[in-house]
Fold these 4 entries.
Entry 1:
Amino acid sequence: MSNLNRGGSGAHAAVAESIGKRIVNGVYSVGSILPNEADWSAEFGVSRSVVREAVKMLTAKGLLTSRPRIGSRVAPRQRWNLLDHNVLAWYAEAPGQSQFLASLQEFRHIFEPEAAAMAARKRTEAQMEKISTACRAMGSAETLSERSIADVAFHNAILEAAGNELLLPLGSLIESTLDRLFLMINRVAGQLRHAQKLHEDIEVAIRRGDPKAARQAVRALLENSDDYIARVQEMNQIHDTTEVAK
Amino acid sequence: MERLRPIDPTALLFEASAAASSLVNMLGREIVAGVYKEGAVLPNEAAMLERFGISRTALREAYSKLTAKGLVQARPRVGTSVRPRVHWNMLDHDVLAWHLQIVPVDEIATDLYTLRRMIEPAAAELAAKMRSDDDVKNISEALSDMRRHATEEAALVEADFRFHVAILTATHNPFINAFSSLIRAAMLTVFEMSWRGAEVIKDQRLKQHETVGDAIRDRRPARARRLMEDLLEESIEDARNADIGDG
């Protein structure tokens, strides 16, 4: 097993990642009692206090519950904080997650059009400026990663402009979807230009203070992503079949 | 005569961790309430130990919990400081609870209702398509508990919460699920409000819940959505009336 003892504050995050992935992948099943501090400390080659930090992190993310004397157990799935950036990322990589993007998109269809409509009604000038800046940055980005960062900023700025604090944590779901989409992006020609136009429609609708148009524009964007995901998955299947044929 | 306590290292750990969790509560509340501003560096370790009369272990334990909640960060040579609000994990049970204690209840209730009206009708529609037989059983058990405890506020609120969560669970979408478990604190606060002072319409409201359950059981998505929209709309009225009654 790899030695994670790199010292510094990164060590416990790396241990938490290893353990977190095993939980999400089902290597440790729900309700099972996990190895103790000493075992993990030996396996990862780190001190027990590093393991303890990692366990605390995972507890805060809802992946495990720990009690003195009994040790740690894997928490029931409903308690896992899937809105947490790390948990989302581990979850996205777990095998058997073909449903992952579909579920994310399903939820985005529920909250994003409405959030944009709220933003069209309530946005301040400063919030509008943030949305517009991100939209322009998307258009002028020279690399895919620059564009991806601007894209995430655009969606987060809309959530913020909706003026409902409870919406903000959902930004992590959008970010995770976009990360996944960007892994696929080169596959379909013309996709970027079209997507840019769809984002600009949203920006204009919010600027004009038109909730209906904003809602509609976000739906169009999400449907475009749905189509895109479906096409890429189709291509992957063809690709997989060819691989097998070789 | 005072009895000597057995020296049990686990017991000592227990004490440290109990002290830490009450410290987490105190500091967390102060940070959320703005006693320590965003970006501000917290008093140094010695000052904290003196103020709270706790051990260094307990203080560090508390800091690491607050760090996990996104409220503070420790930097070498600078110390522990309050992170900007955007990094706070608002859907963490504790953070949300501290927030609820300082924000005017009607403000958080408005935010929560807005969010519920965005999500729950769509979830009811989805549930009517996706529900398993177990889901139907959970929904109907929650409903009969609501009826049985119609006059006991705490049990009623719990059963009502269970009803709404069972519908969110019946969507079989893990993200909608995660969302429901995290807004628990906010929902309970608002539920208590919406039942208070609503005695007169309780029976009608109970029936309304049952019709939502029936639509999901009968796999009628459009009807489930519409009935859930009505239910939430009228719950808001209940809450407003309760507010007026109490104020």
Entry 2:
Amino acid sequence: MKRNILKSIALLCILAMISCTERIDIHTETNESYPVIYGILTTDTCAHKVTFSKTLPYFSQEETPYIVGARGYIESSSGELFHLTESANEIGCYYTDNNVYGEIGKTYTLHMFYDFNSDNVEEEYTATDFIRPTPQIDSINFSHFVVFSERIQPCISFQSGSDEAYYLAPMAYNEQLVTDSLSQFITFSNEGQRGKYITKYPVYIQDNEDDHIKLLENDTVKITLCTISKAYHQFITQSQKEIAGGNPIFSTPPANVGTNFKGGAKGIFVTYALNKHQTLYKRNE
Amino acid sequence: MINGLRFSAFFIFLLILSCEYTHSQEKSEYTIFGKVVDQSTKTPLSNAHIVILENNKKLSISNTKVSDQKKNSSSKDKVNISNEKKGTTSDDKGAFELTLKPGNYTLQVSYIGYNTYTEDINLNKDINLKIQLTQSINLLMDIEITAEEEDQQIKQTTTGVERLSSATIKKLPSLLGETDVIKAALFLPGVATTSEGTSAFSVRGGSPDQNLILLDRATVYNASHLLGFFSVFNNDAVRDMKLYKGDIPSRYGGRLSSMMEVNTLDGAEKFSATGGIGLISSRLKLEGVLPNQKTSWLIAGRRSYMDLFLPIIPKDEVKDAKLFFYDINANVSHRFSDDDKLTFRLYNGKDRFGQKFAQIDYGNTTGSITWDHFYNDQFKSSLSLVGTNYFFDMFARFGELKENWKSSLSDFTLRFDNDYFLSDRTTFGFGVTSGIHYFKPGDIDFGQGSSRNPIKVPHNKALEHTAYFMGEQQLNDYFTLKYGLRLSLFQNMGKAKVFSYDKEGEVIDTTYHQQGKIYKTFFSPEPQIGFVYRLPNEASSIKGSFNHNVQYIQLANNSSGGTPLDIWFSAGPNVKPQYAEQLSLGYFHNINGKDYELSAELFYKYFSNVIDFRDHADLLGNEALDGEVLSGKGNAYGLELMAKKNNGALTGWVSYTLSRSERKINGINEGKSYLAPFDRPHNLNIVANYEATKKWSFSLNFVYTTGSPVTYPTGRMEIEGNYIPIYSGRNEYRLPDYHRLDLSATYRPERKNKKWQSEWNFSIYNVYSRHNAWLVQFVQDKNKPGTTYAEMTYLFPIIPSVTYNFNF
């Protein structure tokens, strides 16, 4: 969130300048292609999804090629195996059975197998994560303030753990996910607040004039708190920075986003416990 | 012990070298030894014109000045001249020497911007003269205050030094009419901007924090106004600027790449006012002398006024914005006697920009108080107390999200500098400095009611002591040797909290040091040696130099542009000092006196412990900042060519630099060598000024540089609806090449009032509106799945401006 503030100020600075934009032609070429795996296992009981695709040259005009015919499973530290089945409807998506759930305190390892380099030998890609306990959200409040236009700021209050922790907070209005793409994911740490009761922590800034999903009186607001690994927190923040691009004043040089996969795949496999809380949005409360 | 022995041996070597070179003189002639200085500052005036007129008698000149002895004495012929003026110019120490037959003469000494000195001389013995020139009232234009000796380029021993006078800088077309010392320096060979519109610059492939910027001896840590669009130096108050591109005199140090020395003016002998009204800012300089005629003063100020016009712009984003800068220079100089002078110099500047919900303030304050004492004509000492402070404050408030950030860096240094002019052939300088640095990298408060603990990035203190000795000796008529040794001691001092890190930069241990405890010490000898070999044709010279420099403090900033958020941090238990060795070799040639100057310089620099930062480093508000630092090796090499025309209606220069700068640091680019962000293989500058008539003059700048190295994505992966770039190696691609043409015209109306002078300056920045890339971003077209494109941001299209300058 600190970076968001700084970015806002950076944008303000840029507003003060005379700047214009135009498209330019840039040619970057690569013959290299990598497998990309993105999998999530939570404490919810449901069919958990793993997507398997591959990279493209940056300026390719093709849509992302998803990989079919792979196989895989998730293994828990207690020896359970959750096999993945390729979806018939969604290309490149592999699901567990719909009665699978992760348990707090267990470590899970995703194994994916696919002959990516077409040498008739399957490569194995593995990644491991651990499920940490997640605190309950006690309440959701809303702040209102004006920055050029009125903003609504949903805030959560909860008891932070005493250890270093990183949180993800997906949010939905009337069951419609607002934070529906990686660039909108909300992640933060308990740095400086370990073991404390965190009051009114702002997780989002809603602008009803600009945002495509509006927040209106009596809408249901649901926020899910998830305790994630530092690796996933970094994956999200690094991805967001690279997606947004940088400006020469405040940004650091571009760099590849990290991964927790072994075997040469990009992407990430994450596990987390989640707790949900919902309330009705009342303008005057 | 070994270091001590080496130092002793080196010192003895210097003593041997200091044995005077003697030569015979004919008894039928006498010599006038003279030294020309500024009456107010006692500063030696180089290139003062000394003219000797022999009244109705034949004049024989057998010698002019030390450096010309060979030329004249070797011919063995006396030149008999009747009723003609003859003379010489003072050298860079203000000294001159004339050997003449006995007789009555009239001596005239003149210097641009000073009143002419005249004295009748009955020459019947050798005489010593100390000539003190008084400044005339500054005219609005045409003051080349730092005029150079006619053969200065050939004679001076320092390699890679560039000088620009205030008048030269003023002639250059500038962005929005704001004359700028640093922007002018960017037209010099070996100097490149790091990004469009910034005051940060790179010298010979080094990073911006490797440049020591001194304003009247005080370090300026952030020399930018308005995010770097303008520098902090008000040209009205500036006397001159010198840029040492690596061959930094031993008197100063602490940086690897360059030293930019900006000196401000002393007050004039009579009251005068100079000012200007521009589109962005206005400025006023007042100067004069108190009735006691011993105390001169100067005050100069600028303030921008964009903020005054913002409310009339109907956009909410703009009308409530705060956006201004100001700066003030104040100098007071009191002369107690001919030999003692006390000078006080102060600079204060600040920028503010923001909105109701967020604001940034930053600025510099520098000050110095200096006592100059002349023991005699040969020996001078200066005792100075110098202080500097750079601060950066920021607050932001977005509903429940509040952040208040304060950071600063302060230095206080006591200097004792001495200059000993043993003879016109041999000079020495020596001295000591002792100083303390206070680093406050960031105190962040999250406001009342926040459950977040304030973040206090550990404050640090460091002591820095130096001793130096430097000398310059003309060994014969052709060869001059320059040498120096600087010994620096840098000590980290408690109270401090120091982390230990693993290979990944994660904190594994913490050590607390008590108040006042020295917990880490670095000692570095910094030797340097150089020579100039003047070729027998008197118009050419070859120069060479070797320098070893060390840098103990650096900037935690890996952006390519200048930023107000400069966090400096010191060497310590986790960060080693950076070192650089530089070799320079140059050939210099003058044509027709100083009318044309040609030069070619080769340089090679090798960096050790040069720093960069881990991928995705978090440098802001990070307690474990030094865990993000990686260090390795680097090198830079190149060729600088320059052709300069100094006289006539058309003046200016063309410079071209061919260079390469690389880094190799474990942990970056998979440990493979990569281009430094400031690598510019080709850099061409053309600067021209044409004095068409007394009323009109025209100027032109053209710059062409290879685009900056950048890292572009070569691939992409899709996760949760977003394309995430995949990059190749660090800095494998380049931004489009940068080029720009600027023009200006200056109109000086006929003076109707003797006191009031004025001029209009019309300038056009980026005449052909080249869209120079400031930033390239990569965009995912949400409406067309599978489509990505590159988008370039550029800052300045064609920008005309007009400025009115006045003087009375």
Entry 3:
Amino acid sequence: MKNVTRRLPCDYVQPELAPVRVERMWDVVERAQDVRRGKPGLPLMAAVAALTVIALMIGLRMRSVGTAGTKPGALIVTREQSSALTLPDGSALSVGVATSLEVTEASPAAVRLRLTRGSVFCSVVPRATRTFRVDAPAASVLVKGTRFEVVANETGTSVRVEHGSVEVRSRDDQRLLATLEEGQTWSQRQPTAATEPAVPQLPTSAAVVEPLALPPTAAPEPTVTPTHRPRETPSALFQRANTERAEGHAEAAGAAYDKLRRQYPHDARAGLAAFELARIRLGTLNEPRAAISALEFALAHPRGFVVEDAEALKIDALARLGDAAACTRAAERFLVQYPNGAQRARVAAACRLR
Amino acid sequence: MVDNVIKLAERPTDGQLVAAALSGTGTAKRALFDRHVTMVAAIAFRLTGHDSDVDDIVQDSFIGAFTGLARLENVEAFRGFLASITTRTAIATLRRRKLLTRLGLRRRELVRLEALTAPHTPADVVAELRQVYGVIDEFPAHERVVLLLRRFEDLSLEEIAERTGASLATVKRRLVRAERLLAQALGMAESEP
């Protein structure tokens, strides 16, 4: 029998757990639970309202874009909570906080969004027969298939391309302002009050009998400043992903890992980045199919992680997908290959009990 | 006299909280988290020897436990279930860390014992911890964990088997190997487990 009064060495080895640290950890756990349930986070009102508008008015999720029931004009407004939507063709929109985004067109031939303020990150599935366009205050962004972000705020409009290429055009579509490739950004400053033309003073006496000939009030021609952001090195990307992850920004971390493995598939970190991406997709974002895709990449580039862990994670993802046959087959193979593996119990339980 | 006694609300058991969590009561998960976060963080901290991986392990462990609640046969055994998940998560982290170090993608971090132990730790305990943590980073993850659970947490071989998900025979084999590695590292004669 153990001596229950004796203090064990382990009792003297305890980490510092400040309340703020505990809260931060709980936030991550809770968010993962929310994502799994598909429950909108706080504030509930804003998220529910946004989702309701989307479901009822444009049918982006429920119906095919471009069916008779599709009603352009839907307005997606977020406040303190960002929102994620998936279009029927697989294109995904991540609407940032404090954003106002209007769907002006949604048909099989064209999707057109108007961003009045805030930001939207678009991951557009390539379709030769459909155009995808985002109108921002200073420019329009036209794409075929890519991932990019448009930000519109009081300082101006900016476009950042993460993958593929986009055309930045004037709002009237007459001028091509820039063609951006992967990793490039484009921005245009909003004209400030100081640059606006002065309004002439009204005469102080006598009635005004003639309308004043005011100079045009349009803003001066803005300077277009395409900028080429230096391509992040694999090391910088890996570091950024790890930092984002440590701070609980799972999506941002996932995006950076994803970028690393796509941009530098032969880098020593590529497999590990894909593995970490899969962990995030499965553990936090509840995207088993996307996790499997990342794991397949990781297993084809097996450096920096334990292959057994990746195989076990894949089985977990198959179980989560509900693919019982594939899960069982994979689990049986795994148990033969790793009879004393660390993940043996987890794998044995995964297919049977889900 | 009896009238003055205020009855405190009974603290719900883990089983009651698990049942409530399974029926969709969100606060039950938070209560389970609050109740066990210290234990989970401590396991993560002791097994990895560093503070830097603790948050990740804690989060992954709770997410894994909450996801797998439905497969918990004895709901009162939540603490053991969670400890087992945490141990396996820590092992996976250690293995990853080792690989990263080997590939030059992670700097080797020395265990800072003063950061690891409480200020009032008795000198003999500090000496023992210093001795083991000073050499254990070189050990394979499984051997390291088995040794720490045995030496510092005083778990039986059966308990270690349950915690790590390995068979009793495997645990015995790993413990023998770990003790041999420890003896070699400390320049001592081989000791009995």
Entry 4:
Amino acid sequence: MEFTAKAKKLLDGLFPAIAIATKGVVSDCPTGFRMMLQATNKELKATAHGGRLASKMGIDNHNVEDLDYNCKTEGSITVNASHFADAINSFPHAEALKIKANKSELKISQISKTDEYQTMPVYDEVVKLPRMASDFDKEISIRRDVFLHGKTRVFFAVGDREDREQFFYWALRTNKDYARFIAGTGARFAVLDIKGKSFLQTQGKSEILFPKEQTDVIISILKRIEETDIVIKQAKRDKDIPDQIIVECGDIRMFLVAFDPTIKYINEDKLLDAKKDVCLTTHVEDWLYATKGMTATYTDEFKDQHTVYPSSLDIDLKAKDMVLKTNTPLKANRHIPIRKIVEKNGSVDVLTLKCIGPFLAEVPTYSAKEGEVEFLLNNSSEPVFIRHAEKSNTMQGLNESFISFFATLNPDGSS
Amino acid sequence: MVVAKHDARVCWITGNYTERTAQIERVKEHLGKHELFSFHEEDLLSFVLMQIEQFSCFSDQRLVILNGWPEFKGPKKAAAKKLISVLSTVTSDCVVILNNLKYDSKDPKDFKQPLNKIARVYHFADSFKFFDAVRLVSEIFEKKEKSIDRDDATLLVDSITSTPDFGDRVVDPDRLLLMIREKNAQHVSKSEIIRDIQSVPKLKREGLNFHTKMNKAVTKDGKQQFVYSYFAIEKAIAPASVYPRNRLLAIRQALGEAILKVRSTNSDSQAMTCFESVIMLICNVWGLDKSSFLRKEIRYI
């Protein structure tokens, strides 16, 4: 195998394959960190399979500008993807490179200075893609910018405990003119709803779960593609074909396999649609310094000795005031004025919520800099819902609503 | 011994594995649909306590099981105090099971007494006296409407009895209850076992990675191949009569853990220590507790 191409353009073009081979790789996957290159007269193909995410792509002088690809001898080899990327990156970006391989090694040299070269071993193993399904029971076509925006808004909330596997996934739920992105740990969830015309095509109600570990790789690839839409489809279960989700954008097709298709995500509608007795409206600006004060009490010394950072929120409906308190060795006592109260039965005057402090710190972090933040709740033992302030017109022509909700702590407990 | 409090939200269960597990299953059954949180030695106490105190977003009932003392930077007395304090205020949507949590203290006020006040306590036997075990065998057979005469029950118990340096002969309840279950099952002769194992077909790997398929291997003349020969099985069965079942399970567990550890370390000496611990276990020099270091760090699968 022998071909020539410009260093930087080659690296840019092969980015998806290199990313898939090197990031979010399943440990012990035999093809992890490896990439197969196939040089043909027409194009340079690259195949990578990190155990859960796989892709095959082709680059040529049409889809990568200034690549200057020229195949001298057709052939294919498998190399370590990150060694390959590091070697290519070690040459001046504009330099044309000659890449030549025999059965034992791959040699990358500068065309202008042939005695400047890098070599690396090649592997016998062939990197293969999973067998592609032909029958898909879920198919969603969604605007790429909406998908990237949705993932960015909720991904911070995704779970991190291995014993709660369903929360290692985040979900995209769709219906006509409507998409919901949801992620959570089991104790705290972030939900983004987007509504509007012409940003989505879906066959009725649909849900696709994305595994946490591979999400950043998929997103990093999708960010670099200049296409309007993404097509996501999930194959119908078939004993002869691996369970798979396919993400297509432009010329790139990514396969998500080896996930657990039997995992059922939570049904949050029951909670979101339930009546809430109290709705308090606050201003996001009032949360900024109050939560900074709370966070200031979680000192490094405190963090060294604790994994849980509790706080309490004393709500006085009559005085239209909330007090955010912490009781670590350092103490915080910060007021947040309540601007408006809507109360269903009027039986509550004061209420103390005990909760994980960082959940409250997310109010200013994930809200717009200005605007109203609504607190919806029933009592101190049921989940608290926060409707965050939104920037106006973030996604042109679409309406979005961002809600987070979390479980509270026992008010009589010792935390 | 069982101390029952009908409104208790905490269960303290100690003693032999079989009866503890059965009791936990009964609690689960009683709770119906619930969200389960299970913690071990590697979890941090503060995190575990937070989980006990945190209401659920979705479920009406939570079951929190502590399978060991969670990690705590400080004296055990302080850990026990914190745990008792949280257990005293467990809410009505939560049940906490302390599964074989032991606390050695001369002062019962540290743990035992306060726990007895707030928990349903189930102390199952760690060992049976010989004649109690014989009686138990007869009772269990009777409950299952099967008969065993006293001589056979005595013989069965005698086969797993150990004699401490001082005192009466004692019987390990887990071994006894396991054996009763086996004896109740269909009797299978050694020759039948060998015949079954001999019929396991040899498989041939075809394809790579996710395309791998395992097909039955055949000889050149088309005859099916099998994994084990008669002699190999005969040889392999021998240790079964040398090691008691729990020992074999312990060796199997240690092997699995050692492999994980060896694969995840770059240190030759750590790998050698892992191998050594397995060999010590096989040679009956160590118990499973001595090889517990194998499972203390991060697992990779």
